[in-house]
Amino acid sequence: GAGVSQSPSNKVTEKGKDVELRCDPISGHTALYWYRQSLGQGLEFLIYFQGNSAPDKSGLPSDRFSAERTGGSVSTLTIQRTQQEDSAVYLCASSLVQPTGVSNYGYTFGSGTRLTVV
Amino acid sequence: TQLLEQSPQFLSIQEGENLTVYCNSSSVFSSLQWYRQEPGEGPVLLVTVVTGGEVKKLKRLTFQFGDARKDSSLHITAAQPGDTGLYLCAGSTGGGKLIFGQGTELSVKP
Fold first, then answer.
1. Residue A4 touches chain B, beta carbons under 8 Å
2. Does the residue A117 lie in any domain?
3. Closest to A45 (Cβ–Cβ): which among B6, B41, B97?
4. Cross-chain CB nearest to B94 (options A45, A102, A105)
């Protein structure tokens, strides 16, 4: 697609339920990133995919959080047994990566999924 | 832990004024990027600086990367209401991911 697409745009869920957030990156972008942003704050890194593998998942807050990427394209971020502190905007981005694995290319972000846990 | 500290966190100015936003770290970055984010949207890339001492201009916006590649600044000349938004700096260590600062919320009043 022309841009990074995220769905749903808004999700309200009850505490304890599981949620799945989807990201469809720009075609041809091998790198995909998930970040979390609380109201008016900067971006907190969650996980990074290069192709289908995740060389860096150091930002996942707990084992309730997991993510996968299939076919080098779509990614799903799953939060199990949601808690109120999980409420935030979850942003997905994709980018090109240089052959050396270094990325000085800019990210293209989706509009995010606003998750509210009640 | 690599951190990027942005200052100020909030800035409210009148149209026509100049302003500078700072982004500082104790870590060296291979590149640094600036993004602008509007409510309900994802951040949008403004510029990437790669070389220590580099200066880039984008219309009324001037971006500078420190000589030691640990800090950066964004200067806006004659700010306009359309410049209102959250400005984010982000550093790359070459490992693939970007580390973001906490952002500067800019409000330009007509």
1. yes
2. no
3. B97
4. A102
Tell me the C-alpha to C-alpha distance, in Å, between residue A8 and each of A24, A31, B105.
11, 21, 26
Q: Would you say residue A109 lies in a domain? A: no
pLDDT tens digits for range A87-106: 999 999 998 876 555 556 78
Q: Nearest chain A Cα to B98, which residue?
A: A45
Domain count, chain A: 1
Q: Is residue A33 part of a domain?
A: yes
User: pLDDT tens digits, residue range B18-62?
Assistant: 999 999 999 999 889 999 999 999 999 999 998 899 999 999 999
Closest Cβ–Cβ partner in A41, A48, A110 for B103: A41
Looking up residue A38, the CATH number of its domain turns out to be 2.60.40.10
CATH number for the domain that contains residue B70 = 2.60.40.10
pLDDT for residue B25 = 94
Task: State the Cα–Cα distance between residues A107 and A113, nearest whole angstrom.
Answer: 17
